[in-house]
Amino acid sequence: MKNVSVTIERRITVNLSASDWFLYTRMEGVDEVAQQINHEVEYAINRSETKGFAAQQIAVTLEKFSKFGANDTEPVAVASQILNKAYPEYDGWETTRCV
C-alpha cells in the first residue's frame, strides 16, 4: 500500500540463570556466561526484523559458549522457546529451532 509504513518494535528482557539455561553449572565463569547469553539473545531479538535472522544470531551465540554446554539440546530448546514467545505471529511449520 502506498504511503503506509509499519514499524514493529520488539522489546524482550532475558534474565535466566546458568541453571535456567541448563549450562554446565560447575564450570568456573558459568554465571557470567549465562548473563552474556541473556544479553546476546536480547540483542538478537530486539534488533532483528525476522525470527529466522534472530535464530541465526542466537545459534552463533550458543555455539560460541558450547564449552559451557550452551549448544546442547536443552539450551537450544530454551532459546527456541524464547524465540517462539518473542515472535508469536509465527506458528506451525515456521516454529524456529536454533541450530
Secondary-structure blueprint of this entry?
Blueprint: H1 30-47, H2 51-64, H3 73-86
Note down, in words, how this protein is organized.
This protein is mainly α. The protein has helices spanning 30-47, 51-64, 73-86. Helix 1 (30-47) runs antiparallel to helix 2 and helix 2 (51-64) runs antiparallel to helix 3. The longest helix has 18 residues, at 30-47.
Descriptive labels:
elongated, 46% helix, single chain, mainly alpha, 99 residues, 3 helices
Question: Could you give a quick summary of the protein structure above?
Answer:
The chain is mostly helical and 99 residues long. Helix content is 46%, strand content 0%.
Shape: elongated
**Terminal CA distance:** 36 Å
Which residue ranges are poorly predicted, with pLDDT under 50 across at least 5 consecutive positions?
Answer: none
Number of separate strands: 0
Beta fraction: under 5%
Going by helix content, strand content and strand pairing, the class is mainly alpha
Order of helices and strands: HHH
Number of helical segments?
3
The pLDDT mean sits at: 90
Major sheet = none
The portion of residues assigned to helices is: 40-55%
The radius of gyration over CA amounts to: 15 Å
